[in-house]
Design a protein that fits this description.
This protein has 319 residues and is an alpha/beta fold. The chain contains 8 helices and 19 strands. Strand 16, helix 6 and strand 17 form a beta-alpha-beta unit.
């Protein structure tokens, strides 16, 4: 136990159920098991993100879905494909979407909530959905001073009708019988992580640069290893997220960092200090995904070669 009452896990499996990239030829290791299924059942990739997370404390186990990609078609297809993977059939991993007991939404962007309604309808049961109330705010992207594009919004009514039991959280909280920590609002302490340039949110009837109050991550404390920290897009900043999780969990050692780090586009300019800070954190594994960007992913591979793992759709990480 730590100061928050967060329990240690004996094992965690994190499956990247949805991500931007697919690669049949990446090798397995003790830490990662790849999903290699031939067409027509091969896994699908799309520019979204979803994780299936299973935690164990000895014989006790819990499964949560963290984000849901852009489409239910991709999410549900990959979940079904996963059941035919070699690692599942050989008993090396046991993640299964039918075991999901709760859903967490990292923030209110369509590439993370798009498959939610389809998943909830397929589940055919009431499922707790943990999210920040700010996930429902209207958003738009400023392409130029003259062109602003509205973002698809999240409907509270549609979620309720599909079977979600909404759990609106702003502070750090625990899930899965205290085995998973949900960050709550991430404290902003770095000088360089400023969110997503060009994104605006309508708060108190006024359009302002999006503060991303709703951006949240997860942390799991693996016995004798340290924290596994998982981000969505990490609009609060992946380094801010790591610092916040260490402080909130009361655990300094970081075993692994996974997620979208949002270092593409305008945010390429903060790639240097982000990698330097990640080196200082010194996780055993770093797995950049989704919105991290091609340049940033390659930079992590170059500068942290012993810790970097290239993700692909369906990869399951065992810690």
């Amino acid at each position: 136990m730590n100061e928050l009452g967060m329990r240690e896990v004996s094992r965690v499996e994190v499956c990247a159920l949805v991500d931007n990239y697919s690669d049949f030829f990446l090798a397995d290791s003790d830490v990662v098991k790849r999903l290699r299924i031939l067409p027509p059942n091969a896994p699908l990739a799309e520019p979204g993100l979803s994780y299936l997370i299973k935690v164990n404390s000895d014989s006790e186990e819990h499964t949560v879905l963290f984000d849901a990609g852009i489409s239910a078609a991709c999410l549900l297809h990959n979940a079904q494909t996963l059941t035919s993977s070699k690692a599942v059939m050989m008993g090396e991993i046991g993640v299964n979407i039918k075991s999901v007991e709760a859903v967490v939404l990292s923030h209110g962007h369509f590439d993370h909530f798009g498959g939610l309604l389809g998943f909830l309808r397929e589940a055919k049961k009431e499922i707790p959905l943990f999210l920040h109330p700010g996930a429902f705010v209207p958003r738009r992207f400023q392409m130029s001073p003259q062109l602003k594009i509205d973002m698809p919004g999240l409907s509270e009514t549609a979620l309720l009708e599909a079977g979600a039991k909404l759990e609106k959280v702003q502070k750090a909280s625990k899930l899965a019988s205290d085995l998973i920590l949900l960050s709550g609002e991430v404290e902003r302490v770095t000088e360089y992580e400023k969110g997503m340039p060009g994104m605006e949110a309508k708060i108190n009837d006024e359009w302002i640069p999006d503060p991303f109050y709703d951006d949240q991550g997860l942390a799991i404390n693996v016995k004798d290893k340290g924290l596994v920290i998982i981000g969505g897009c990490s609009h609060a900043g992946i380094i801010n997220t790591i610092k916040h999780m260490r402080k909130t969990a009361g655990v300094d050692k970081v075993h692994a960092v996974l997620g979208g780090f949002h270092l593409s586009g305008e945010n390429e300019k903060i790639l240097g200090p982000t990698i330097e800070e990640m080196k200082a954190v010194n996780p055993d594994y770093v797995v950049p995904m989704h919105c991290t960007g091609w340049k940033a992913i390659n930079q992590f591979a170059t500068e942290m070669p012993g810790q970097f793992i290239l993700n692909s759709v369906g990869s399951t990480y065992i810690f």
